Amino acid sequence: MTSGSTHQDPTADRRSGVLLHATSLPGGRLGPEAFAFVDWLADAGQSWWQVLPLTPPDGHGSPYASPSAFAGWAGLLERPSAPVTAAEEADFHDCNDYWIDDWIRFAGPGALADQVRFDREWGALRAHAAARGIRIMGDLPFYVAPDAADVRAHPGLFRTDTVAGVPPDAFTEDGQLWGNPTYDWEAMAADHDRWWIARLARSAALHDSSRIDHFRAFESWWAVPRGAQTAREGEWRAGPGARVVEAARRELGPLSLVAEDLGIITPEVHHLMEALGLPGMRVLQFAFPGGWDNSHSVQNHPERCVVYVGTHDNDTAVGWWDSASDAARGEAWHACAAAGIHDEPPHRMLMRLALSSRAGLAVVTAQDLLGLGADARLNTPGTAVGNWSWRLEPGALTPDLARWLRDETERAGRSPS
Predict the structure, then answer these.
(1) Angstrom distance (rounded) from CA 28 to CA 340
(2) Is residue 193 part of a domain?
(3) Does residue 21 sit within a domain?
(4) Rounded distance, CA 235 to CA 222, Å?
(5) pLDDT surpassing 90 at residue 103
């Protein structure tokens, strides 16, 4: 599949976009609804569509613990039985020879044809998006699922003594025990980081830019002993630093990447981002209550970052507002007033505040555009059930809503030239 990407820093120009998981499209798959969403984005004056991982999800619907770091999910196909020629299969195999045989062995008969169909449908959507001036930001999970195709094919690249997680913080007393396999970074280096380079190449072929989830693990990662009951039993261990991204750039050329730098972020993580020249993220829900030294407060946003009211891991703006403390709501009102934003429903005020940020890219969610409550939340980190099920109702994104977003995008100086 040809990328067509310019590999541009998504924060280089003052722009905006919408976050919507592909499974949250009406019908939960590609096809006419996906094309219609791209058209709506263009009508709304947007420049970016941010998607979540396109890889197969786990049994709970999460795309962040996928059985493949490379394969597109056949469950997204509009035409899962469309004919595939031998020539198409041979061409796909030649372009994806590093990983496709591993996936075929794991997924069984028909896996190659499904990947041809996926690239065919996704490629058509990418071409339509490009024609409408819409670029697509993808999402690269840091880890893969236990017993994933990649672990079976390359067992020497993964550790057997530790699993992934994050330590205790203000939100989780015992941390989060994800249980994903962790990487043997010395073995990766001995293999010249080929697996990671192939991952980044695949992501660059599918998207115009990619957000690296849990980027901080390149600097240091939380190692939880296998069999531990909670993540509290883990410890920090050194990651590969800049080595992987630098190796990929040497082989692949420029890459458009965004570092997810949320959570426990140390000065060393920021130094690594600066060394690699990667923009990070800011989330307004984390700014209140905050203070003038809070990096998520709108007055502290750098130009080279992507700002959100909330991401797929946060509550909706309405849900957050309804559950926030009086102090948090008061600070949010004050921040909006300081930006000249008054007398609108809280979810619209917060979206306008994000658009007003000096951040190069502002992204709002479809749920917040619709003013939906907590029942429309897509994911609650640390919980396994009840996530990834929300879908957009057909026709919910109306022309009137497109006009509102286009007007606010223009007001914020984010309209495409």
Answers:
(1) 38
(2) yes
(3) yes
(4) 5
(5) yes
**Residue 292: per-residue pLDDT:** 66
Q: Provide the sign of the torsion angle of the four alpha carbons 75, 111, 65, 265, taken in this order.
A: negative
pLDDT of res. 378: 95
Write the DSSP assignment of 290-353 as a string of letters.
--TT-TTSGGG--SSEEEES--TTSPPHHHHHHHS-HHHHHHHHHHHHHTT--SS-HHHHHHHH
Q: What does the angle CA 115 – CA 118 – CA 120 come to, to the nearest 5 degrees?
A: 110
- What is the C-alpha to C-alpha distance for residues 417 and 280, in angstroms, rounded to an integer? 24
| 64 part of a folded domain | yes
Cβ-count burial of 267 within 10 angstroms (0-12 exposed, 13-18 middle, 19+ buried)? Answer: exposed
Rounded CA-CA distance 226/61 in Å is 24
Considering the entire predicted model, what is its pTM? 0.95
Q: Could you tell me the two tokens for 218? A: 């390149």
* Residue 189 placed within a domain: yes
Residue 187, pLDDT score: 98
Cis peptide before 289 (omega within 30 of 0): yes
Any idea what DSSP says for residue 413? T
Quote the number of domains for the chain.
1
* Nearest alpha carbon to residue 286 among 310, 265, 316: 310
Residue ranges making up the domain that contains 405? 15-278+379-411
Domain CATH code at residue 142: 3.20.20.80
Q: Annotated catalytic sites, by residue?
A: 213, 260, 313
